């Protein structure tokens, strides 16, 4: 017999990747704790920030942790993809938070903002689609 919750889940809304993918952004320099920062409700499609998240044990089945994509690592991958050495931003001598600032300054000075945002959006979308497929969450682009 199918429970009411499972029946509602079958009728659940599709996840919009357009907005959802930005919940995946994670700055390890700001929050070194890898605990999920956001939770997705499979019934409602609602995304709730972890600090405002509390559930009853019997409701745990309807919540999924939103994956985290470390933006600092994406920034480093982008530079490598562009054929630039991380030394351009002196990655070994500055903290991660400073790396993010230096990265943003660098791409701004070298007119790479549009390419960066396109690269980041695609990486986040790819991660979101992979997560949706893993948890069988219906989505739309």
What features would you highlight for this structure?
141 residues, alpha/beta, three-stranded antiparallel sheet, two-stranded parallel sheet, 5 helices
Explained architecture:
With 141 residues, the protein is α/β, with parallel strands linked by helices. It is built from five helices and seven strands. The strands form three sheets. It has a three-stranded antiparallel sheet with strand order 4-3-5, with no helix packed on it. α3 packs across α5. The longest helix has 23 residues, at 113-135. The model has no long low-confidence stretch (mean pLDDT 82).
Topology:
Elements: H1 4-10, E1 15-16, H2 17-20, E2 25-26, E3 38-41, E4 47-49, E5 63-65, E6 69-70, H3 71-81, H4 96-109, H5 113-135, E7 139-140
Parallel strand pairs: 1-7, 2-6
Antiparallel strand pairs: 3-4, 3-5
Figure out the total of helices.
5
Structural class: alpha/beta
Uncertain ranges: none
Radius of gyration: 18 Å
Average pLDDT? 82
Order of helices and strands: HEHEEEEEHHHE
Shape: elongated
Strand order of the largest sheet: 4-3-5
Report the span from N to C terminus.
33 Å
- Number of DSSP E strands: 7
Roughly how much helix do the residues carry, as a percent range?
A: 40-55%
Please report which band the strand proportion falls in: under 5%, 5-15%, 15-25%, 25-35%, 35-45% or over 45%. Answer: 5-15%
How would you characterize the largest beta sheet?
Answer: 3 strands, antiparallel
